[in-house]
Amino acid sequence: MSLYPQLEAALLCRDIERKMELAVDALQGWRGGALTRADAPPPYALPEAGRPPRPELVHPAKVPKRSLSTRQGHAALIHAIAHIEFNAVNLALDAAWRFREMPDAFVSDWLQVAAEEARHFAMLRRRLRALDCDYGDFPAHNGLWAMSCKTDYDPLARMALVPRVLEARGLDVTPGIQRRLAGIGDHDTVAVLDIILREEVGHVRIGNAWFARLCRQRGLEPETCFQELLRRHDVQLYRGAYNLAARERAGFSTQELEILRALSEDDTAAAG
């Protein structure tokens, strides 16, 4: 069977549990040789991936901020992370489905990421249900998928701006979230985030490796190329604390780590 109709079905699926099953099935079918890249029609613009009617999507600035001192605030924080993981499933599926000029190893990498993101989502959904909530109960924003649409023209742009910017930010903020959750006694979610953080390092490392490989193939200097893509898409690097140890494991270069360290120090100085 052709891989691409299977990936398209997973991408467009609106049923939460079925989408996660299809993501795992795609990886297993690919690894087992049941799915091939033969007879692949060209991809097309996909303004919206399949998602359930809820959560309501709002502008990032309009996502309500809730205190962790309340049960609703506690659940809302976990919901926000689950929403990121749900979008990450679609992003990984889209990378494997869209960029058909890339080699088989690229497909293998992103199908693995999709299956792992599906598992992350399932773990977080169980934690939500333990708080008598579910995915869709809180509003969310669509920033991750919006960047997918902006970078659907080139795998280099996608690798630069999704894994290396948006997903890498998760490496930075997760330890702080874990401390906050530990402070209210939610050690079960802290343990889930330990697993997610470890595997997200691997996902960002995959993005870094393909970005570097594409730069080499095109004769581009990686840092110059990255800065140009940031300018072209009006993306600003965050100011604030960076998890430099995790980013080093994820394959960021010494030069990049120094830039991020300087951003952290500038922010600390401004706050002081």
UniProtKB/TrEMBL annotation:
Designated name of the protein: Ferritin-like domain-containing protein
InterPro entries from the UniProt entry: DUF455, Ferritin-like_SF, UCP012318
Source domain of life: Bacteria
